Amino acid sequence: MNIKITGTGSYIPSQVTANSSFSKHEFLNADGSPFKHANEVIIQKFKAITGIEQRRYVNDQYTTSDIAFFAAEKAIEDAKIDKETIDYIIVAHNFGDIKKGTIQSDMVPSIASRVKHSLKIKNPRCVGYDVLFGCPGWIEGVVQAHAFIKAGIAKRCLVIGAETLSRVVDDHDRDSMIYSDGAGATIIEATEEEGGIKSHLSATHAHDEAYYLFNGCSYNKDADQDTKYIKMYGRKIYEFAVTHVPKAMKECLDKSGYGIDDMKKVFIHQANEKMDEAILQRFYKLYDKTIPEGIMPMTIQELGNSSVATIPTLFDSVKKGMVKNQEVHKGDVVIFASVGAGMNINALVYKI
Fold it and tell me: Can you give the residue ranges of the Beta-ketoacyl-[acyl-carrier-protein] synthase III N-terminal domain (predicted)?
């Protein structure tokens, strides 16, 4: 028995927001003081570091559970399964449902329960729950689905990563330009087909690193200081990621029985183009190897950082030929890796 991804689906919001949309924002430092540079310079430097040229935001009427449902429908259709045969619905997110114009996060009922309701699944043995694991949440959901199936508790799981970060950003924080919205879904199930999940690794670094990403007040001191937004210590996250993620990827790959030359694609969380490139460089350096051309697909330039949704939407897009000069084939060995709030990291080696 092998445990494979048998269906994928994603929801990419239609609302495109280019970097130029931020030209009239009042960006401030953490202490509320204005930046010395003009917005055009801030935006230019931002693009040089992150690679982001535009991002996607959901339309006003949608929430995280809505777009999770949209992606789930596509994954179920792609897998050609009866939705009533799903044993678990695992939804990775970080902020729940936040309606446009509100400041509260709504997580009761769980996003997974809402998705099950929208899918109109009647089977009460289909269990839904949420995973809060930072940006690596979708991979962690896949790890849990793998464990359920391997233990005989389940045969088929729906794992979703969905987020609407546009609802939790501080317009006065230049880091707000990084974040975006999106949802990706996968069907994970036991199959006699060759391939599947070969190894995985997860870790939480919380002694000194727990609050590298956190909820904080607006940099505009005249704004309501009780309203919280997503905040981060970017330099610390960068240093953490390039130090720990390559080592985790190597440990996971070594455990799989495959070698670095077997890798056909590396799917890294689309957090920051320069950071992802540095992670890849250090990963290959651990094997004294040069990076093969085109091995790391990237969509952050057009889609931004949608947290838990970046890897499943990227994988779905590459699998379905929607990323230029990128494709995967049956039998290819790939690795997924992510880093995010917690600070959490994980990696997973998979044979298509």
Answer: 129-202
